[in-house]
Design a protein that fits this description.
This protein is α/β, with parallel strands linked by helices and 714 residues long. 38% of the residues lie in helices and 20% in strands. Among the domains are: 188 residues, Rossmann fold; 147 residues, Rossmann fold, CATH 3.40.50; 78 residues, Dna Ligase, domain 1. The strands form six sheets. It has a seven-stranded mixed beta sheet with strand order 9-8-11-10-12-13-14, sandwiched between helices. About 2% of the residues have low confidence. The chain is flat.
Length: 714
């Protein structure tokens, strides 16, 4: 696939179908833009009614062109596309960029055109960008099929489902300076090439160091995740997902299913794949700039070199809020700083030079080198007014400050550590700042965006290392016992497993489940003490028609003795029949009362966009209210499971509160991995809901388990 997109973006010859002498037509503007940008390849205007367009010989069709054509820009209406693609196939043209709208989105007529166009493309192996795209560009190839002007070449790639977002990026880049782009793809309707394929192209493209994706919806979310996991081993991938309520919509009958219909699911899965997920549109470009320019750090310890207390304090607050660790400087580094700076300087992190650079900017480079050389420092931030010393103190300092910028710019490569600068003078674009930018050092106006960039850089480094060292775990296949249980359920034409069946299925995958006994009559209760012991018992109605047992009065707890069990049995049946007179009641499940602990939920749902997804969070009756949950796509790694546990906001509860002991997180992780294996081995299970699972310092107990099978319509 990348070869096809390479042919498009590295095209040495372009045919403009619908070329025109009318300066207001796209077929005219495209030729003029290619020429204005200095495109060095061949341009072939295609128009059967004009012998010449803008001084170039015109052709009636691509078939009349003797030379090879790498890509066509189709500027004609939708109805012409199937025939054009047939001609492209006969000419062995690899790709077509299609501007027109009027396909499946307009109804039956458009659907017919879409079908014919896709058949022609598949038949002849012609890849389609669009339709309904605003174009593509590759600034390193000087190939501009969009029409934006004066865009600086660089190493940020853009793939967007909105042309206006691309315009916002390039406009902001022009204003800020020092930010450039490699290629842009307006994906349009994604009739043929999808987002995962565009990501693969950017992953293979040497001119792109950080692809940015503005996504409104995934056609194949699973393929994007798999490609992202691969690409992020080579370079960061920045994603902004709009339409946040669209992600993971399912017709759900469980806690897991209903909670999966949230943006949290998409964000969790993208981050699992290594992507950097930006949630504010005005931060997209600054984060992409930083990630595209900065080396991947070995750790997350940050040092601050400041020339004033205010910005340093703001920066420290922002770093702490972002969960970033401040570096503890070595004694040797502190002594070197004290020798280089005035007595009033603070030489612990954050380092405040206290005017020590005001009349000698080179001190900034000296101190920066001390900090970057420190083995306790992974990242350096220079904070305050660097770049403005000449403007603020003495114009004669300008040359020294420019030379200092050159020295600073050489340090990241020398030490293999990122350097980020925040300067109040950035928007004025003084020469010392421009030298830093030209050398690839990102410069920010305010501390918070700089800190956000640092935090995302650290997260990317950790995600890349995690995915490289912790493999996804895929089951060998279903167990014989698991197959037997599900075959019996399917044979009974049920869409839901009874609770005892669900727990038996868990046990088939080595999940520890408590003792249980199904009572089909009151007389069965005489066996309880012999099978389950003499302790307090819990009883629950067993019915495929009553999923929320408590709501139906179908649960009784802390029952001791046969008489109490019999009374509870009768009440449960009476309540259940009153709740749903037509319900199929299979019996009552008896099990020992669970010991106290922390209630959590583990679930799996088959998301229509991403496939099987696991959810983890605090469980019990509050899960729907708090919605404090995390998500990962299956298969997942053990490190993914561990991150899910630590990611929820209330994770500290699992560490023990008010003197309580921490829960056994290793056992919890084991449980999550076993549930993952079960779900992957049995894709016929649509939803799994273990709620609650009680976790304790000595393990866990699955108190309730629900599983729903695929049925017609799912």
């Amino acid at each position: 696939m990348s070869n096809a997109l390479n042919n498009i973006f590295k095209a040495q010859s372009i045919a403009i179908i619908g070329a025109s002498n009318d300066p207001f037509k796209r077929g005219n503007q495209a030729i003029r833009m290619l020429r204005a940008d200095g495109y060095e390849g061949r341009i072939y205007p295609i128009n059967p009614k004009a012998p010449e367009i803008l001084g170039l010989k015109a052709y009636a069709s691509v078939l009349e062109v003797d030379d090879r054509i790498d890509v066509v820009l189709v500027c004609t209406p939708a109805k012409t596309l199937p025939a054009i693609l047939e001609q492209c196939g006969k000419k062995d043209i690899p790709g077509a960029v299609v501007l027109a709208a009027g396909f499946a989105e307009i109804g039956a007529d458009g659907e017919a055109i879409t079908k014919d166009a896709l058949e022609a493309a598949r038949k002849h192996n012609v890849r389609i960008v669009g339709p309904n795209t605003n174009g593509v560009f590759n600034l390193h190839n000087k190939m501009n099929m969009v029409g934006v002007q004066d865009v600086e070449p660089g190493n940020i790639g853009i793939c967007s489902q909105s042309g206006n977002m691309m315009l916002a990026f390039v406009t902001e880049a022009k204003r800020r300076g020092g930010v450039g782009f490699s290629s842009y793809i307006g994906v349009g309707n994604q009739l043929d090439v999808n987002l995962a394929e565009y990501l693969q192209y950017f992953g293979d493209d040497d001119d792109t160091r950080a692809p940015v994706f503005y996504v409104e919806g995934f056609q194949d979310g699973r393929a994007f995740l798999e490609t992202c996991r691969e690409v992020t081993q080579k370079k960061p991938v920045v994603v902004y997902k709009s339409g946040r309520t669209e992600a993971g919509q399912v017709a759900a009958s469980s806690h897991t299913g209903s909670l999966a219909s949230s943006f949290d699911l998409t964000r969790g899965l993208l981050r699992q794949a290594g992507a950097t997920v930006v949630e504010q549109s005005d931060k997209i470009l600054s984060i992409a700039e930083g990630l595209s320019k900065l080396a991947v750090p070995q750790g997350g310890r940050v040092a601050i070199l400041a020339d004033g207390g205010g910005h340093a304090t703001v920066t420290v607050d922002a770093l702490v809020d972002a969960g970033v660790e401040l570096a503890d400087l070595s004694t040797e580094t502190i002594e070197k700083l004290r020798d280089a700076l005035p007595a009033a300087a603070s030489c612990i992190n954050p380092v405040d030079v206290a005017g020590g650079t005001d009349d000698d900017p080179s001190v900034s480079a000296t101190c920066a080198e001390f900090l970057l050389a420190d083995e306790n420092v992974d990242i350096l931030m220079i904070i305050g007014m660097y770049g403005g010393f000449a403007a603020r103190f003495n114009p004669a300092l300008l040359d020294a400050e420019i030379e200092t910028s050159r020295q600073l710019a050489a340090l990241p490569e020398k030490y293999g550590k990122p350097l980020i600068v925040q300067s109040v003078y950035n928007t004025l674009r003084p020469k010392p700042i421009e030298v830093l930018k030209d050398a690839g050092v990102p410069v920010f106006v305010w501390p918070e965006p700089a800190v956000r960039c640092v935090a995302e850089l650290i997260d990317y480094a950790r995600a890349r290392a995690r995915n490289a060292s912790s493999p996804l775990i895929v089951p060998d296949g279903p167990t014989a016992e698991g197959m037997k249980i599900l075959t019996e359920v399917s044979g009974a034409q049920r869409d839901a497993l009874y609770e005892h069946e669900a727990k038996d299925l868990l046990a088939a995958y080595d999940v520890a489940v408590p003792g249980q006994m199904l009572a089909r009559s009151e007389e069965d209760l005489v066996r309880v003490s012999g099978e389950l012991g003499d302790g307090a018992m819990a009883m629950k109605v067993v019915s495929q028609d009553i999923l929320h047992k408590s709501d139906a009065g179908g649960v009784k707890l802390k029952l001791s003795g046969e008489n109490a069990l019999r009374q509870a049995y009768r009440e449960i049946l009476s309540n259940a029949r009153a709740y749903d007179p037509d319900a199929d009641i299979h019996g009552v499940l008896v099990s020992p009362m669970a010991q106290p602990g922390v209630e959590i939920i583990i679930g799996v749902v088959h998301d229509p966009m991403f496939g099987p997804v696991m959810m983890f969070g605090l469980g019990g009756i509050f899960v729907e209210v708090l919605k404090d949950v995390s998500f990962r796509a299956l298969p997942m790694s053990r490190a993914d499971a561990e991150e899910m546990i630590g990611e929820i906001q209330s994770s500290k509860i699992l560490d023990g509160v008010r003197g309580g002991l921490p829960v056994d997180k290793d056992a919890l992780t084991d449980l999550m991995m076993k549930v993952s294996q079960l779900a992957l081995a049995h894709p016929e299970i649509r939803e799994i809901d273990l709620n609650p699972v009680i976790v304790r310092p000595d393990g866990y107990e699955v108190v309730d388990a629900r599983m729903i099978l695929n049925s017609k319509g799912h």
